[in-house]
Amino acid sequence: MKLSDFSYELPSSQIAQEPLAERAASRLLILERATGAIRHGVFSEIAELVAPKDVLVLNTSRVIPARLRGKREAGNGKREAPAELLLVREIPGGDWLALGHPGGKLKPGRRVIVGDDATVEIVEVLGGGLRRVRFVGSLDARATLEKYGEVPLPPYIRRPPSREDRDRYQTVYAIRDGSVAAPTAGLHFTPELLSLVQARGTALARIDLHVGPGTFKPVEQDELDRHVMHPEAYEILRDSAHTINERRSRGGRVWAVGTTTVRTLETAATPDGIVHPQSGETNLFIYPPYTFHAVDAVITNFHLPGSTLLMLVCAFGGYASVMHAYHEAVRLGYRFYSYGDAMVIA
Predict the structure, then answer these.
(1) Contact (Cβ atoms closer than 8 angstroms) between residue 215 and residue 59
(2) For residue 21, what are the contacts with CB-CB under 8 A and spacing of at least 6?
């Protein structure tokens, strides 16, 4: 398949700019994987869709305030034009990987002054738009993010981040800092809804994939096999792997909340579907055709045309069925992308 196969028309009015007041009040498009049949509901119905014998797998990575805005430092120590850094992750030795804008100006040795007590130096220019940066002001990286960092809302949300975004662009079960974008399928869950799911007998399993450029990097080649994903760090603990394998061995289904969870489970699974506890980095790129080993149902949002996330969803639900479902969602006025409505493929 080609990149051009994953295109669809979306009115800008359907790109959600604000979250709903109630997380679980989002609309829910339910796609039957085997037949392509579609029905519509509300996200709170998830508690009835997931069976008591199943397991719901959550990505508990927490979004950090990863966007830093500042000024480029001139050679004479004066401040120049605006500059922006999006921190991706810390690397051994205390430096960080970051994306920078404007890229052509952020060369090794240049500094970005974020505040009187916070300065970031460009150490090395790497591939794929990444840079190795070092915090050289009086504040270290985490203190700088806490004081000056912004919630890294995606560019299709055409407004500055608000105080509300610190909470709403975060799942209620987020634990471990590390993501620069939210695993957005999980934004619809509330503590009450998760408690209801568990009360019905469904198990919860928690994994981590720290969302980075690998998830949102645009595909630029029409031939999909030429696209390379940035690696992203993940971890599956022993207890979670045991819960997933035990439930599936007894006939339960594995429900992956979000494409990041799907990629993590598929990275760690053997062809017989056994998920092994492990940690590392994954650059797994899933697109049609792909044989899934560890996932039986997916809860997801509606994704950008031509994105790796849409390609993964098409691989899971069937290309024709998923694209038809997207056209139906557009026709019926669903809200799209991070703060938008949800979709289940089961």
Answers:
(1) no
(2) none
In angstroms, the CA 299 to CA 29 distance is 10
CA–CA separation, 194 and 120 (whole Å): 40
Kind plus residue range of the DSSP H or E element containing 321: helix 319-331
pLDDT band at 218 (very low <50, low <70, confident <90, very high): confident
Burial 284-295 (b: 16+ CB within 10 A, else e): bbbbbeeebebb
Q: Which residues contact 78 (CB under 8 A, 6 or more apart)?
A: none
Write the pLDDT tens digit of every residue in 256-303.
999 999 999 999 999 999 999 999 999 999 999 999 999 999 999 999
SS3 label, residue 247: helix
**CA-to-CA dists, residue 307 to 66, 75, 259, 314, angstroms:** 22, 40, 12, 11
Q: Which of 178, 184, 326, 198 is nearest to 258 (CA)?
A: 184
**Whole-structure pTM value:** 0.93
Quote the CA–CA distance of 103 and 216 in Å, as a whole number.
18
**Structural domains of the chain sorted by starting position, each given as residue range(s) with its CATH number in brackets:** 3-63+165-345 (3.40.1780.10), 67-148 (2.40.10.240)
Nearest 10 degrees: Cα torsion 17, 18, 23, 28 = -30
The yes-or-no verdict on residue 340 having pLDDT over 80 is yes
Strands 27-31, 38-42: pairing is antiparallel
Q: Are 147 and 118 in contact (CB under 8 A)?
A: yes
